[in-house]
UniProtKB/TrEMBL annotation:
Its EC number is 6.2.1.1. This is Acetyl-coenzyme A synthetase. It is an enzyme of class 6 (ligase). GO terms for molecular function: acetate-CoA ligase activity. Gene3D superfamilies: 3.30.300.30, N-terminal domain of ligase-like (3.40.50.12780). Residues 89-484 form the AMP-dependent synthetase/ligase domain. Residues 539-620 form the AMP-binding enzyme C-terminal domain. Acetylated. Deacetylation by the SIR2-homolog deacetylase activates the enzyme. It comes from Microbacterium marmarense.
Amino acid sequence: MSSQIDHLLNENRKFAPSESFAANAIGTVGLYEHARADREAFWAQQARDLHWHKPFTEVLDWSTPPFAKWFDDGELNVAYNCLDRHVEAGNGDRVALLWEGEPGDERRITYAELTDEVKRLANVLTGLGIGQGDRVAIYLPMIPEAVASMLAVARLGAIHSVVFGGFSADSLRSRIDDAGAKLVITADGGYRKGKVSALKPAVDMALADRNGSGAQESVEHVLVVKRGENDVDWTEGRDLWWHDVVPAASKDHEAQAFPAENPLFILYTSGTTGKPKGILHTSGGYLTQATFTNKVVHDLHPETDVYWCTADIGWVTGHSYVTYGPLANGATQVLFEGTPDSPHPGRWWELVEKYGVTILYTAPTAIRSFMKLGRAIPNKFDLSSLRLLGSVGEPINPEAWMWYREIIGNNLAPIVDTWWQTETGAIMISALPGVTETKPGSAQVPVPGISIDVVNEDGSHVGNGNGGLLVVTEPWPAMLRGIWGDPERFVETYWEKFHAQGFYFAGDGARLDDDGDVWFLGRVDDVMNVSGHRLSTTEIESAIVGHDATAEAAVVGASDETTGQAVVAFVIIKQSYLDAHTPEGLGHSIRSWVGEQIGPIARPRDVYIVNELPKTRSGKIMRRLLRDVAEGREVGDTTTLADTAVMSVISAQVK
Ligand code: WTA
């Protein structure tokens, strides 16, 4: 970490927005001034940009921290805000989704068409007994039906739990169980790198009898989109084809009003323990901040821009900046099913050219992999339509930032590096592209209306030029309202550390430069960030020890040029397996096991077979030392180890 900090300290380039960009930008200095003068009035004004069936009179209720209520006496319908109101305003013919499937098939869907589809689906869901507060699991590829499903659930005041299609049957099962989902919406399969990857079989496995599994009991129906055309098993009475029921349903459906604090979704994310937490978001505050930030940070002009956020709807970025923010703003956006490099490594740039994308929002890991392939590939395409670039998910190193600016943005498009979390619901820290002089590698400043600080362990401000812990010092509209079914864990994880000050503890290390701008330094807990995806060391360790051959395991996140961090596992193997198998065979088997248990993204890059793990006298594994080994550094201070010789043995075994 220290070499990284030195490197960042030497970074002092700055880029001001061009005059013409600044002149047309939606986000202005005035927003900061208004927010500073009266934070609550500022957020109330942003909220009033939405349609309220019943206007709110209260803004923030913070009488029982950390449980906030925003716009509590107001009522709205989230889907109505994303759909009907645009049609009613005469914009029904505007394209909402420019969808492209991996094989190259296309669909253009207008706001009027998407509204009809969501209304039909809402009628189908009502017929299946889904109503306010019911949970619906969504396990779909990046197809228009995924967006429609989220909106139809929201329209009914029900709660969706989107599970990333790359997660395994086991991960899906635990998420269905935890939320007690009544319905699962899935597809037969989706396209991935030229092949159909099956989804329905994973749902069948997740719902299979497992000695009284909750999933099997709570789920009444499975609604299946035909996409992959792969063969699937069918459970009569439980399973329904989308194409049989949705087109046949009525397209008349009036959106009912729901309270601002009605839950909108649960999204599971990795924490520091083995069990993923169901982050709970509600309606009015969430939609307000997602919509506002999408507008001012991405400088979204819905009449003229073609917006593309490359995130999958299985992650929070796909919730706030594919589904809710852009559709509430009435944007036209690209939705792409495939991967960046299939069938050729220029696929994304081909799409930018083809659709005339003006705003691109993606992750540093993608930029770094393009950088590795070289500029010749993007240079083959006309990227001159791009006028704003965004980054999200992990710190972006200055080299990648500069490459993004020069090669993709033609040295013109401002870059917004946006920091936020599943828990924060929407962007918290970012430049405003028409206002801020941007700095490569720094997320910089809180967006208007957000109050943050970097503090010492005791909660005191670190002062410019120093590092510490990132905190949010005032409640914000899109803040998580809790962890599903576990209020204690919510309080403990985020609010206990700075209880005295009432600060939200984000789990990120950060530094303030001499201007007071924020530079992120990565997580300070046992959460890893691999290609912008959050993974928990403990979760992967418990998967590995579930493998028959394994006696014990420790997992660390080691820095990786492309993925930011990579999963590295140190594993003690049972003697009988050591005798019967090669180390390569065991490593391979453990890697695929983790892929099956959690999902391919969690598969360790390296599996090192060792005899012992470094432990303190109280038996705690010292992952810091293993990280030194994994990153090829000299091993740090070992004096608190129970057996100080163990690290030299491990280092030798790894070599
Ligand atoms: C990291 C993704 C530095 C951070 C929206 C945070 C970032 C975690 C940035 C949340 C950024 C996200 N700069 N770090 N611009 N954006 N992070 O919940 O460690 O998947 O705590 O939300 O990603 O990841 P999550």
